[in-house]
């Protein structure tokens, strides 16, 4: 993480469950939560990046496949969390029948099993790690009332997962909040636009071709995104959708060129509109005013600041790949 975090009495002895804690956002959240003093349990099919964490507070890992109802419900009964952060999901990818089937089985059934486990232990608070992809090509900027228009099986599964959360909230009294971030980036990330360009420059590639280039994104630095998830835990609002973004809409080509310039590289960025995916979102941008009003949150990193920190991490990792996964 890129900032010092002090223990907070609100989190002391609080039992927090994080699904998908071995993933990119989950890793950063677990790190922050343990530094705040929470007792954290992560559920995931495999630990992923968690092996690299040196946690400051009590933390444990449980290997659980959320698509297996009995295992998920048993895990919830064992941990009995006060608060659940739900990030576990099958990632977005090229559309196919197999991908769509796995996405629905993993994301939707996993969310249902998690909610049922919470119901059986008497409820609690669930913060749903949502995705702005549920908006598809709806008008920007995103607000709580922006209509859903999911254009991929992944987006459909995320939209339906939140609707299941709302059902369990109305029928069984669970407290639920959806946090919908735009493109999140930062240290320890897997493959996305930003990491791809950084690694291409580090590898000395003469040029890179973008699948599109004119589509816009609103990059959100991961430390800022985690701060919003933390703030949502103590919010009095329930049943809300809260959109969060970096605060600036830029084309993918402009973001890529900005990275090359910050790195002092010479890699040529080539836009290839004909290679864009059929499920492409052509504009992505968030109105942060609701997040500021409801959570007291706003991003603290400019895009340049976040990119510089991400570039520094990737550069160190490139020079010594053994030091970090």
Explain how this protein is built.
- By secondary structure, the chain is of the alpha/beta class.
- The chain has a domain at 11-185 and 221-247 and 283-300: Rossmann fold, CATH 3.40.50.720.
- The protein contains 9 helices and 13 strands.
- The chain has helices spanning 24-36, 69-79, 97-120, 153-172, 193-202, 222-233, 252-262, 289-295, 303-319, and strands at 15-19, 39-44, 59-63, 83-86, 125-129, 175-181, 184-185, 207-211, 216-217, 220-221, 241-244, 250-251, 268-272.
- The chain has a 7-stranded parallel sheet with strand order 3-2-1-4-5-6-11, with helices on both faces.
- Helix 1 packs across helix 6 (222-233), helix 3 (97-120) packs parallel to helix 4 and helix 5 (193-202) crosses helix 9 (303-319).
- It is globular and about 55 Å long.
Topology:
Blueprint (H helix, E strand, L loop, with lengths): L14 E5 L4 H13 L2 E6 L14 E5 L5 H11 L3 E4 L10 H24 L4 E5 L23 H20 L2 E7 L2 E2 L7 H10 L4 E5 L4 E2 L2 E2 H12 L7 E4 L5 E2 H11 L5 E5 L16 H7 L7 H17 L6
Parallel strand pairs: 1-2, 1-4, 2-3, 4-5, 5-6, 6-11, 7-10, 8-13
Antiparallel strand pairs: 9-12
Helix pairs in contact: 1-6, 2-3, 3-4, 5-7, 5-9
Concise overview:
The radius of gyration is 19 Å and the shape is globular. It has helices spanning 24-36, 69-79, 97-120, 153-172, 193-202, 222-233, 252-262, 289-295, 303-319; strands at residues 15-19, 39-44, 59-63, 83-86, 125-129, 175-181, 184-185, 207-211, 216-217, 220-221, 241-244, 250-251, 268-272. The chain contains nine helices and 13 strands.
């Amino acid at each position: 993480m890129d900032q010092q975090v002090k223990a907070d009495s609100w989190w002391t002895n609080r039992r927090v469950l994080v699904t998908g804690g071995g993933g990119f956002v989950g890793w950063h959240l677990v790190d922050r939560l343990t530094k705040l003093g929470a007792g954290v349990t992560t559920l995931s099919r495999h630990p992923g990046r968690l092996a690299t964490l040196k946690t400051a507070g009590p933390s444990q890992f449980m290997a659980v496949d959320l698509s297996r109802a009995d295992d998920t419900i048993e895990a919830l009964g064992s941990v009995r969390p006060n608060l659940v952060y739900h990030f576990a999901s099958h990632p977005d990818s090229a559309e196919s029948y197999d991908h769509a089937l796995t996405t629905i089985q993993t994301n939707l059934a996993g969310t249902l099993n998690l909610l049922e486990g919470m119901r059986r232990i008497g409820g609690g608070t669930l913060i749903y790690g949502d995705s702005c992809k549920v908006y598809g090509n709806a008008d920007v900027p995103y607000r709580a009332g922006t209509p859903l228009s999911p254009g991929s099986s992944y987006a459909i599964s995320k939209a339906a997962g939140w609707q299941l959360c709302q059902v369990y909230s109305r029928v069984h009294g669970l407290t639920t909040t959806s946090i919908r971030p735009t493109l999140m980036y930062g240290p320890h990330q897997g493959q996305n636009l930003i990491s791809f360009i950084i690694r291409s420059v580090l590898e000395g590639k003469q040029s890179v071709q973008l699948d599109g280039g004119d589509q816009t994104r609103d990059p959100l630095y991961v430390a800022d995104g985690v701060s919003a998830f933390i703030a949502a835990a103590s919010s009095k609002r329930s049943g809300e959708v809260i959109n969060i973004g970096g605060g600036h809409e830029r084309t993918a080509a402009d973001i890529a060129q900005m990275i090359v310039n910050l790195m002092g590289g010479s890699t040529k960025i080539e836009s290839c509109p004909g290679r864009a995916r059929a499920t492409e979102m052509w504009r992505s941008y968030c109105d942060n005013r609701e997040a500021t009003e409801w959570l007291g949150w706003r991003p603290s990193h400019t895009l340049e600041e976040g990119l510089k920190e991400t570039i520094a991490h990737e550069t160190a990792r490139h020079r010594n790949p053994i030091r970090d996964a």
